[in-house]
Amino acid sequence: MEGDIVLAAKFIGAGLAMIGALGAGIGIGLSVQGALQGMARNPDAYGNLLTNMILGIAFSEAIAIYCLVIAFLMLFVL
Amino acid sequence: METTRKWRWGKNRWIVLLLIILSVFAINIAAPVQPHIQVAPEKIIEEPLFNLGPLGDFYLVNTLPTLIIVDLIIIAIAFAVRQSLRKGDLVPRGIAGAMEGLIEVLYNLTESAAGKHARRIFPWFATILILVLVANLMKVLPGMETVGVMHHYDHGHPIQNLFGNFYTLLPGEAEHGDGYILTPFFRAVSTDLNFTLALALISVFMTQVIGVQTQGLRYFTKFINFTTMFKKPFFGFMDFLVGLLELISEFAKILSFTFRLFGVMFSGFVLVALVITLVPIFVPSMIYMFEVFMGVIQAFVFGMLTMVFMSMATRGHGEEEHH
């Protein structure tokens, strides 16, 4: 019985940890929006904007990946 | 004048399609089994190989053989490029040509970000990028994470004899104490936290070294900033606090480098494992394609961030640009 409660708490915790991915999703969306608007106004800056956009996406994506790591820790390690 | 060859992928894509269709029959012969997912790399031999004193025991984990193969591939590429340079062709072909294109793109990228310090930064950038790229692309080789030794496990799977001493796992759960799980010989290197942490430490430490090499001891005023404290007390104090934040962000860099690569590659591994057991045909091919894409992107991001941080370290603290 107690083991079942702990197991259920692990799954709930892993699910709750992934809420943090919400912020990362918004961040990635905003940075892509900015980069696309920049590309539309100035197509010459395409290459430059693309690399910087990927860098920015990598930064915001890291937040989602921290959540994912925490979720994995709860599911497979603890 | 060399003739342009025909585009070979026109033929090869039918081979890929044929392989995908063949997988329909393959899952009837050997049904996919959900692997035992573990964050730490599995030990191939249970006993430690040797003792490292205060650091603890050294085990033969299954990311080490993969790392050796990755190194061998990179050394083979290096030899191929050397052979081609020896011949003195002006236009390198094959692997050498591909590497020339890659290096040229990377060097131009470094030069546009770092200017005259590009020669100092470029080796670290390119080394990290090529190592992580080859390591991430290794997972599409057949036999990775699927061939290994069997272990007894409480909630394991039943096994079936193929021939001789070779067995295959069957899906479903065996009776208690009878089951086996698989410990693969090869597991993708980037799913080992030690590998990514080592790369992150190298990257951040060499950023400091390059900062000191280009700016001298003045580089450390970025962290402990007393320079403006006496001229304008209030903003000087703010600069001091900002410097402390920079110091913390150096440690945050190590953390984010480590967990970004590890998290993406490990979640990719879990995703492939789950999707293969849920939908064994067609869908895993697309997931694999996505994983190859993510591997390339992560290698690029790891190298690119190293390069950007290093080029930021070569520049002064903004103050000297004004006068």
TrEMBL record, chain A:
Protein name in the entry: ATP synthase subunit c
Topological category with respect to the lipid bilayer: Multi-pass membrane protein
Top-level division of the source organism's lineage: Bacteria
InterPro entries tied to this protein: ATP_synth_csu_bac/chlpt, ATP_synth_F0_csu, ATP_synth_F0_csu_DDCD_BS, ATP_synth_F0_csu_sf, ATPase_proteolipid_c-like_dom, F/V-ATP_Csub_sf
Site positions for Reversibly protonated during proton transport: 61
Organism listed in the record: Bellilinea caldifistulae
Family classification: Belongs to the ATPase C chain family.
Domain V-ATPase proteolipid subunit C-like: 12-74
A Pfam family assignment: ATP-synt_C
Transmembrane segments: 12-33, 53-77
Summary of the function given for this chain in its UniProt record: F(1)F(0) ATP synthase produces ATP from ADP in the presence of a proton or sodium gradient. F-type ATPases consist of two structural domains, F(1) containing the extramembraneous catalytic core and F(0) containing the membrane proton channel, linked together by a central stalk and a peripheral stalk. During catalysis, ATP synthesis in the catalytic domain of F(1) is coupled via a rotary mechanism of the central stalk subunits to proton translocation.
Sorted UniProt keywords: ATP synthesis, Cell membrane, CF(0), Hydrogen ion transport, Ion transport, Lipid-binding, Membrane, Transmembrane, Transmembrane helix, Transport
Key word Cytoplasm present: no
Main location per the UniProt record: membrane
Locations listed in the record: Cell membrane
